[in-house]
């Protein structure tokens, strides 16, 4: 099982002080150095989200990381002509299509691939033709998985936020939804990734409950843990935790 490290929150911290002074020699922390640290810690890919409102990652950040970091790059993006054009310019290894709302602090749910199927189709076709593998960030619902299959997306990323934010019986129900969605995706020949709210505390139950996971995309908990141990060690700790679970 692979680990994609999302470094958006490094840019969030930088923007808190330097949003209008990105060219300043004082602008910190460096997202490039964060990507290097994640690589040293054992990350299998780097994930970043260039939002339409550019609230954290900037175009220049993505282009710099693509040029300098020798890891696969996963670009999270909304389905807009602007972002499709940017993806075609950036040429990441993967893109993950996500919903965006300006009022949200972070992505709050999965993309409705059923409702937006007609709008998504031409974007996916363009990026696929350019050699970019497309993933859809969706809620764990069978109808969403089947829409991804119709759209010929080779990957999905299951939204694990509801699982992560519940306990007890509610968490068990969410885990079952995730398992069923993952199982259906595998039946349809789709790679299953997962992300949102995954941390050191809920990792084991997730991995043990869903035997089909190929990659986890994790950000917030790694940056939080990094405050105390550094980002390289934070990523290393997560990789060790994942390795122990997959060995078992």
Comma- or semicolon-separated keywords:
248 residues; alpha/beta; 11 helices; 49% helix; 8 strands
Topology:
Elements: E1 2-6, H1 8-18, H2 31-41, E2 45-49, H3 59-68, E3 73-77, H4 81-90, E4 94-97, H5 117-129, E5 133-138, H6 142-150, E6 155-159, H7 161-164, H8 168-187, E7 191-195, H9 203-209, E8 215-218, H10 220-229, H11 231-247
Parallel strand pairs: 1-2, 1-8, 2-3, 3-4, 4-5, 5-6, 6-7, 7-8
Helix pairs in contact: 2-11, 6-8, 9-11, 10-11
Quick take:
This protein has 248 residues and is an alpha/beta fold. It has helices at residues 8-18, 31-41, 59-68, 81-90, 117-129, 142-150, 161-164, 168-187, 203-209, 220-229, 231-247; strands at 2-6, 45-49, 73-77, 94-97, 133-138, 155-159, 191-195, 215-218. The longest helix has 20 residues, at 168-187.
């Amino acid at each position: 099982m692979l680990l994609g490290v999302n470094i958006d929150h490094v840019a969030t911290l930088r923007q808190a002080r330097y949003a209008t002074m990105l060219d300043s020699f004082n602008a910190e922390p460096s997202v490039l150095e964060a990507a290097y640290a994640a690589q040293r810690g054992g990350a299998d890919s780097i994930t970043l989200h260039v939002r339409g409102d550019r609230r954290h990652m900037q175009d220049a950040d993505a282009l710099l990381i693509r040029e300098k970091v020798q890891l696969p790059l996963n670009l999270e993006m909304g389905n807009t002509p602007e972002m499709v054009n940017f993806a075609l310019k950036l040429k990441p290894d993967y893109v993950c299509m996500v919903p965006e709302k300006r009022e949200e602090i972070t992505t709050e749910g999965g993309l409705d691939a059923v409702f937006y199927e007609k709008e998504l189709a031409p974007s996916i076709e363009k990026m696929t033709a350019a050699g970019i593998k497309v993933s859809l960030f969706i809620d764990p619902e069978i109808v969403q998985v089947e829409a991804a299959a119709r759209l010929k997306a080779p990957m999905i990323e299951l939204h694990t936020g509801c699982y992560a934010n519940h306990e007890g019986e509610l968490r068990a129900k969410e885990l079952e939804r995730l398992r069923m969605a993952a199982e259906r995706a595998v039946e349809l020949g789709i790679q299953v990734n997962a992300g949102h709210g995954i941390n050191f505390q809920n990792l084991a139950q997730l991995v043990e409950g869903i035997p089909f996971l190929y990659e986890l995309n994790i950000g917030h908990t790694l940056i939080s843990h990094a405050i105390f141990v550094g980002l390289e060690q934070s990523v290393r700790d997560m990789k060790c935790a994942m390795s122990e679970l997959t060995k078992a």
